[in-house]
Amino acid sequence: MEVGQDNVQFVRMHQPRGIILGGKRFFGFHSDRPRDRDKRMHVGMLLAHFGAQAIPGSGNLSAFRAPIFDQGQTGSCGGHGSAQLTYTAFGAAGMVLPFIPSPNFIYANTRIEELAGPTLALQDTGIAPTDLITALQLYGIRSMLTTPGLVNGKSPDGRQSDVWGLTDVQNLQNVAANVNDKPDMQEDEEGLQNVVAGEYQIPVGQAGAGGTDDNMASVIAITKRPVGVGLFVDSGVMQWKAGMTPIDSINMNDPEGGGHWVSADSFTTMEVNGLSQRVYEIPNSWGVEYGQNGVVLITARALAQSMSDCIAWTVRQGSSTSVPTLPPQLKKAA
């Protein structure tokens, strides 16, 4: 079904519109289509640069995390998770960005719009990882402080974010909210920094030596890069708090669940429910009030159960600081 030049009709994943919990819409992740996934370089090509190395019992890139944001609406987990991934990847490579990437800029350039019905308006329903990589190379990143209408660097409803939510639109008069607004190329050139982004596919659902877990741990601990994870989150993940046992199982049939896109940047090895396994730290995009100062702990077993996408996230600065007129050839950064 054709829905316009900038819109793509996708098969929805689980509950694509998400749910509203405490006035916040959490979900909006679409797994890449198989033909897009197959185009990625395999993570083995990235790890080969470092030679055969034993995987250490822990890896920690938390020192390079951006502040935890609060996405506040469906779909923008793509923008928030990718802003976190990009900031962490640069910092871990010894190139600390001079600003926090704008989640709104990434989200608005990559979101998927779908027709919920033949007579209904287009609906924002999230992002797909390949679109994120393309957008970073085509449009680069910009500081969230350049987003018009922020109040002390936050969205008008007080969230640590520059993605304006539905409450902003409903509660403020005569304000042009950025929800559903695609950034204007000319207006956004100022404050941009071009990025060459690489995606290395980590096959999901492969258990045992050399599987998903081993690849994720190797990327974090050996190559010193974060990993982008698309997964299904259930009500147990939503209700998780600091001090609880790490999430070790996800109900894939939970009607309150939905697709989510996050960054995994650290892990340690510990016993959970009688099994020694890696436990990953995932900076979320539900605000610092969630979980452990905004971070959730999830075991390798739970991730393998719920993942539908997993990629090693590598970036470097592009050669230009302005928006290119034509899409550059997709490059993979080592």
Describe this structure in words.
The longest helix has 16 residues, at 77-92. The protein has 334 residues and is of the alpha+beta class. The chain starts with 19 loop residues before the first strand and ends in a 17-residue tail after the last strand. The chain has helices at residues 34-37, 43-47, 77-92, 103-110, 129-139, 166-171, 185-188, 212-221, 235-238, 300-306, and strands spanning 20-21, 24-25, 41-42, 59-60, 112-115, 122-126, 141-142, 192-193, 195-201, 227-233, 258-264, 266-272, 275-283, 295-299, 307-317. The chain is globular. It has a single domain, classed as Alpha-Beta Complex (Cathepsin B, Chain A). The strands form five sheets. Strands 3-9-15-10-11 form a five-stranded mixed beta sheet, with helices on both faces. Strands 4-12-13-14 form a four-stranded antiparallel beta sheet. Strands 1-2 form a two-stranded antiparallel sheet.
SSE topology sketch:
Layout lengths: L19 E2 L2 E2 L8 H4 L3 E2 H5 L11 E2 L16 H16 L10 H8 L1 E4 L6 E5 L2 H11 L1 E2 L23 H6 L13 H4 L3 E2 L1 E7 L10 H10 L5 E7 L1 H4 L19 E7 L1 E7 L2 E9 L11 E5 H7 E11 L17
Parallel strand pairs: 3-9
Antiparallel strand pairs: 1-2, 4-12, 5-6, 7-8, 9-15, 10-11, 10-15, 12-13, 13-14
Helix pairs in contact: 3-4, 4-5
TL;DR of this structure?
The chain contains ten helices and 15 strands. It is an alpha+beta fold and 334 residues long. 49% of the residues are buried.
Taken from the alpha-carbon principal axes, the silhouette is globular
Q: Can you tell me the CATH architecture? A: Alpha-Beta Complex
Q: Helix content range of the residues, please?
A: 10-25%
Task: Describe the strand arrangement of the main beta sheet, using strand numbers.
Answer: 3-9-15-10-11
Q: What's the main sheet like?
A: 5 strands, mixed
